Amino acid sequence: MRPNGRHTAAASQLPTLRIWAICLLLLSAVAMTPTSARAAPSQAAATTHVYLLRGVLNIFSLGLDTIGARLQAQGIPVTVANFVSWSSLADEAATEYKAGRFKTIILVGHSSGATALPDMIAKLNHLGVPVKLAIGLDSVFKTKLSTGAERYINIYIGDGPGEPVRAADGFHGKLDNVDVRGSGVGHITIDKNEAIQRRVIAEIDAAIARSRGPAGPLAEPRAPRGARSAAAIAPARN
Description:
Layout: H1 5-32, H2 43-46, E1 48-54, H3 63-73, E2 78-82, H4 86-98, E3 104-110, H5 112-115, H6 117-126, E4 133-137, E5 143-145, E6 149-156, E7 165-167, E8 173-179, H7 194-210, E9 227-228
Parallel strand pairs: 1-2, 1-3, 3-4, 4-6, 5-7, 6-8, 8-9
Helix pairs in contact: 4-6
């Protein structure tokens, strides 16, 4: 008796059907498994908070929003606000720091936001809160650091409206004035410049990598460095 041709064909297709069924099950398992576009942030990053202070009118410092988005993509919490909020932000940061939710505080400001950084640092220090890193982008008024930040980087345009930052008596920390004249950036574009943004993010990443706990508010005093050339835009080696 000859086997039915339809039964033979069906039987020959069984191995193929089994393979497809196994593939579908594997694909379903992959689809149901939670995935992430990036690795989970480190504990040091998760307990860091970066405050980004815009300048006047909130319309000339939108490069800080881009920096903030890039930091958030790395798992680093940020707050972007106008510089007029610096005092209330300092109060907020102090509350979170004393509750143990913030361990590393970093400040970045552009234009008037950069001018406000020394005042915010002074208030945080007065409240017993150390500042790990502060980066000013073209502060428009002469500013003086009277209290401690572990490191303060002032990136300014020497032949424009920007000003170098001076260290007052009693300043503790490391101060770098970085003159970027001749680099093609202007006061309105310095925060949006790709090389500047990379430098800012690299410095923040390096500060977080150095963190092994709260930054000490009274680091050993170091003589402030003088202005550096536009080549210093490249990420610093740490």
